[in-house]
Amino acid sequence: MLRDTWVLFRHGVGVTLRQKIGIVFGAVQPLLFLVLFGPIFTTFGTWETLVPGLIIQLGLMSMGLAGFGVVFEKRSGVLERMRVTPASRVALLLGRVLTNAVTLILQTVLLLAVAFAFGLRAPALGLVAGFVLVVVLGLSLAALSYAVALTMNEQLFAPVMSTAVIPLILLSGSFLPMSMAPGWLDALSHVSPFRYVLEALRDLFHGHYLTGTVGAGVAVTAVFAVIGLTVGTRVFNREHA
Amino acid sequence: MIKASGLSKTFDGGVEAVRDLGISVEPGEIVGFLGPNGAGKTTTMRMLTTLLRPTSGTATVAGHDLRADAKEVRRHIGYVAQGGGILPTAPLKGELELQGMLYGLSRRESAARAGEILARLDLAGLETRLGGALSGGQRRRFDIAFALLHDPALLFLDEPTTGLDPQSRANLWGHIRALRQEKGMTVFLTTHYLDEADALCDRLLIIDHGRIVAEGAPAELKTGGRTLDDVFLDITGRSLREESALPGKGV
């Protein structure tokens, strides 16, 4: 399984790196928020509060729509061609989600570089810990996205996922902390796992490591990873996938 | 090479696509699997290639049990699906190398093997193109190249020549014959073309409503001066010529 995962990952990274413009294009939206909304936000907030929200936005948009790739592979028969090889089904999923993780890492680095130029000053440990959380969350989200893409009518995948991602971004408190929201919206936002991860990221970016908020973010990310990878693997194992 | 007994597949909703199928294919044979649209050809092929789990029955493919040892079955078979498996936007060279590596070859072995097969199938030099830049016949031969990278003992071809012009079909037949002649490869193929079945296959299996309804060498089936189309019409009540004019449903 490890060898097959590595083979698919290396192939996927090669394909991704040949399409550099695609990596940049995927990060354009949070970059625009950073450049055009950040200077307004920082008149009353901090870059360390805003940038984690933009990273979550990036992760949701980039990884939530990762299933697009497998829709094309399914339609063209490539997925079936791979499924008839002795390669492990888990590797067929892991090779793809690890490739997506590389894309997310590169996009996040780009976002952070621009954010530093604008005034973000997060501690190195907080950045590294935040990175780990975001990558694990992104992997799980990509796995779920593949599961949805392989299960759902392919014509519906794009509109359904695009529609689902927007409320998830808003409910996570990406643009403004949910503590500023009216009570009912604040309560509703607790159903989104991304709120917990985002609040943990904000703590980490402010240099607060051993807090209940960070603990909750780590726990939610771990549970989400187990669910995402389990569901993704099951769907890749299914005979009609 | 293939021994199946009592093989059945019932889909969710109770549709019985294949019923109590018994198949026996000897090493080195080219066997044609004929049937009207919806008869169960593709379902049978997908079961024998481990892509679908049979509802009941047993089968041994390339010496390995279909249910207990699916991975070993996959290691020894090649499969070309009805719709092919080529990404129009990807360079073929990288895709061929990847496919070979998924069969356990090293990158170098995979590249060498791909070069050898592309030369055999008159495709040398085309691997630098994108999948979408190939003609229909070239694309079909690339599909076969993908299936041959690991030198399988048994090749499954689902409607390999559908949509090809007569010249490309004849060219493909030549390649299939050569594979058997030079490598002793066993070939199990579905087709809508009776001339193809007649010219290429040692033996034919005719399936209708999920059951094998006739079996034999083309010459054995064409008794009393009948054509294969007459035989097919007598057995199934439908002409395969009419069927071939319909879009394939892939059941």
TrEMBL record, chain A:
Chain ranges passing through the membrane: 21-42, 54-72, 93-118, 124-149, 156-176, 209-231
One of the protein's GO biological processes: response to antibiotic
PROSITE patterns hit by this protein: ABC_TM2 (PS51012)
GO molecular function: ABC-type transporter activity
One Pfam family it belongs to: ABC2_membrane
UniProt main location, coarse: membrane
Membrane topology: Multi-pass membrane protein
InterPro entries associated with the record: ABC2_TM, ABC2_TM_bact-type, ABC_2_transport, Nod_factor_ABC_transporter
Family: Belongs to the ABC-2 integral membrane protein family.
Protein name per the record: Transport permease protein
Organism of origin: Nonomuraea diastatica
Lineage summary: Bacteria, Bacillati, Actinomycetota, Actinomycetes, Streptosporangiales
UniProtKB/TrEMBL annotation, chain B:
SUPFAM superfamilies named in the record: P-loop containing nucleoside triphosphate hydrolases
Entry's Gene Ontology cellular component terms: plasma membrane
Single GO MF descriptor: ATP hydrolysis activity
Pfam family for this entry, one: ABC_tran
Location in or out of the cell: Cell membrane
Topology in membrane: Peripheral membrane protein
Keywords per UniProt: Antibiotic resistance, ATP-binding, Nucleotide-binding, Transport
Sequence ranges assigned to domain ABC transporter in this UniProt record: 2-234
Keyword Nucleotide-binding: yes
Highest rank taxon of the organism: Bacteria
Matches recorded under PROSITE patterns: ABC_TRANSPORTER_2
UniProt xrefs under SMART domains: AAA (SM00382)
A GO BP annotation: response to antibiotic
Main location: membrane
Presence of keyword Nucleotide-binding: yes
Gene3D superfamilies: P-loop containing nucleotide triphosphate hydrolases
Family that this chain belongs to: Belongs to the ABC transporter superfamily.
Protein's name in the database: ATP-binding cassette domain-containing protein
Source organism per UniProt: Nonomuraea diastatica
The organism's taxonomic lineage, starting at the top: Bacteria, Bacillati, Actinomycetota, Actinomycetes, Streptosporangiales
